[in-house]
Please model this.
Amino acid sequence: MANWAIEHLLATQNVDGGWAAYAEGPSRTEPSALAVTALGLTSETAGGAGTDAGLAWLRAHQAASGGWPAMEGQRADSWMTSLATLAVSHLEPDGEAARRGADWLLRQEGRTVSWWIKLLVRLRPQTKTVDLDLDLTGWPWTEGTFSWIEPTAYALLALKRLRPSLPARSAADRIDRGERMIIDRTCREGGWNYGNSVVLGEELWPYPDTTALALLALQGRPAAEVEAGLTALSRMLDENRSLLAVSLATLCFRAYERPADTLRTELAARAGPETAMFETRPIALAALALVDGPVPWRVDGDG
Amino acid sequence: MVDRRDFLKTSAAIAAVGGLTACRRDTPSWESGAIRKPDLSPVAVLPAPQYEETALVDTVTRGVGMFDLDVRDRRVVLKPNLVEFDPNGVINTHPTLIAATIESFRSLGAREVIVAEGPGHRRDNEYLLRASGLHEQLEDMGARFVDLNHDVVRRVGLRSSFTELGELYLPTTVLDADLFVSMPKLKTHHWAAVTLSMKNLFGIVPGSLYGWPKNILHWVGLEGSIIDINAALDVPRFNIVDGIVGMEGNGPIQGEAKQVGVVVFGADPVAVDATCTRLMGIDPWKVGYLSAVEPFLGNLAPEGIEQRGENLSTHQADFRVLEGFSGTKPAPSVSAG
Model:
């Protein structure tokens, strides 16, 4: 019998094959990508009707550009393309959808500041209000804006999974720059905030969800920040035991082959979807964290 | 020392989280549909020394009663400021005031009172709602919470052009409200000087489409975005500001608590924010987005604001601002507006 999270995903799948952000509502790309990955990697539901319908929903909503909108009817491609690409990379890694999604990701890049701002910062360092390397870029939430940890982490995970089928030089360059951007944004006490580590001289707090995602994205990258991040993540769980935090931490610790059995037991014993207010995202991540066998989002080799 | 102009331009561009990143070449304009400035805007300031629910129900009921606000059989949407949680901080609109407002609107005959927010920093709603205490309050009261970051949306054409956004997808929970109530906390803001009723509307912009912390709004210009969102929102509006304990210094997240002891009420968000700014000892004419909307969106000048309830001077507090906003102080004397 499947765990409670999988049961909930099956029960809340829309008739069009996708999932809403919460138990009811129109299908969206982010929850659909996470939920179908969980169904596809869970032995009881792999290859089942729910997985097929979810995958069909993702295929049907990929734009000609290779990207995915956040929802039906939205004109622009979305940051959720990373998650959709990651989903299809698990379920049909040699498929056309994954390759087109990866191509789209390689064409996207966070924006940085103009040369005159960089010059100004060099001349008047006191005007620099955030402590980061202005030359390092990852992926933005919306096209033409700043790079942030979460969209960069998902993009790196997708590109690393599909790396053998991508143009070697451009993939290596984007992965390297994305990883260096994440490392550059590390909080001083370890771990990651959403975007910056210091603003106006004040240190920002790391969060368990962004820290786990950053660590997952850095798999295969030797860096002192990784070990510090794993330590910080353990510490953050003392304060935050939300379904989102515990699920992502479990995925992260499993990927790094750190002890995660206690966390998995805790997830399996959860009272059910109401603990996460019926939000699909943390529930799908819990289902992913509870997958037996190969660890979801694990990157083998050197990434 | 960095003057405010340099401060805003450089910090915004560098961080992509500042105010005047997108310096428009055209002069900003607004459609006739965005003109909502009344001849006179009543604003009420009522004393509220602490977060005590029974007393606050009475305060809110009295405050709302000072306005011609019929909520019978209406669907009321409360939009508090819920962005982050710090056990030692005062970041969010206090859950006790939210609970008191729900109770008050229910007692006034509202068909439904919904609490809706799209947290700007955290994507971990379970943690944020439980740690802040709001989840428990809403559960006790049987009130519904809508996550505006993931709500069903409609495309809305903007009615002013202080940014180049042109349109936004906004949540139907807000667009279809019979009464939308912005419930900010009285806080300074490190990029915009103050965050009050108007800035609080960043929380209605869905993060699922625009990212966290609503990054595109910062990129196209924080102050312009505040204006364009407020000018675009064409629903009956009211504002209730948590000024019991505010935040000074490096707001909206890392500032320090500042006891003021008031709740501020009013329908005109510009007049409400101008009054709050004066309470904070800041000159509203020196807050960029407030002075920019004065010609069309609401009243900023003292002669356009009808003061009800307490005298401002009784509660005026000297909020500390970051060095970059030192030009916003000192405010003119309260008696002069």
